[in-house]
Amino acid sequence: MATIEAGKKLAAYKAVDDHITADCKVIGIGSGSTVVYVVERILQKPELANLVYIPTSFQSKLLIIEGGLTLGSIEQYPDIDVTIDGADEVDPQLNAIKGGGACQFQEKVVAEAAKKFVIVADYRKKSTKLGVEWTKGVPIEVVPMAYKLVMRSLESKLTVQQPLESKLRMAINKAGPVVTDNGNFVIDAHFGAIERPACLLKELKGLTGVYEVGLFCNMAQIAYFGEADGNVSTLV
Ligand SMILES: O=C[C@H](O)[C@H](O)[C@H](O)COP(=O)(O)O
């Protein structure tokens, strides 16, 4: 039986092999622990050394710089060929929850700017419905001074589905809340099984004070899952 770590690596390597070629010019690099293997695989291929890589967080910027790859910004390169990123949960329609590492805003910008958005994950992330396997909640990035207002709106204003629980994400090894790369806070709102993710996303984005939501609906073209048996499965 393959470990979770092995699953992440298998999925990441296969996605790079299938989608990143020397014909590409600009590549989006997601964030999180699975993406580390994406960069590892890119570095094993000398023909990919001359492409430009766009980060989605401070973590992914460091991966690009420390790997000696060419770092670009989304302002310089708004047209990305392929973005590869991890996910916290993926449903059969390729909707995803992202933002377990609080990177959802830049990840969504770089995913949306790409012609092709590819998800890589281990087998634990595959789900029948969002909110079933990933029970830490949908990450909602909020402007700090509005967090109480958003908490109240989550309780009173949603018509699509109400959250079972909403919590301000607190930091570990630092007093106070997690602060994102954009200087914002994150509220994790757990809805249980999410019946209509795209409708919920639309409603959440309409709440005053919400900066971005970690629901990625109708964005990914394909997902790779490293399975426990050592194979890689795909979802298209
Ligand atoms: O904010 C973090 C990102 O959305 C990650 O891509 C996501 O949390 C998955 O991370 P990991 O590959 O570590 O499971």
TrEMBL record:
Q: What is its EC number?
A: 5.3.1.6
Q: Which reaction(s) does the protein catalyse, per the Swiss-Prot or TrEMBL entry?
A: aldehydo-D-ribose 5-phosphate = D-ribulose 5-phosphate
Report any one BP term from Gene Ontology: D-ribose metabolic process
Q: Which GO terms describe its cellular component?
A: cytoplasm
Q: Does the keyword Ribosomal protein apply?
A: no
Which pathway is it part of? Carbohydrate degradation; pentose phosphate pathway; D-ribose 5-phosphate from D-ribulose 5-phosphate (non-oxidative stage): step 1/1
Top-level taxonomic group: Eukaryota
First-tier enzyme category under EC: isomerase
> Per UniProt, which keywords does this protein have?
Isomerase
Q: Which InterPro entries match?
A: NagB/RpiA_transferase-like (IPR037171), Ribose5P_isomerase_type_A (IPR004788)
Cited SUPFAM superfamilies: D-ribose-5-phosphate isomerase (RpiA), lid domain, NagB/RpiA/CoA transferase-like
Gene Ontology molecular function, alphabetical: ribose-5-phosphate isomerase activity
Q: Which PANTHER family match?
A: RIBOSE-5-PHOSPHATE ISOMERASE
Q: Which family does it belong to?
A: Belongs to the ribose 5-phosphate isomerase family.
Q: Which named protein is this?
A: Ribose-5-phosphate isomerase
The gene designation is ABSGL_01276.1 scaffold 1223
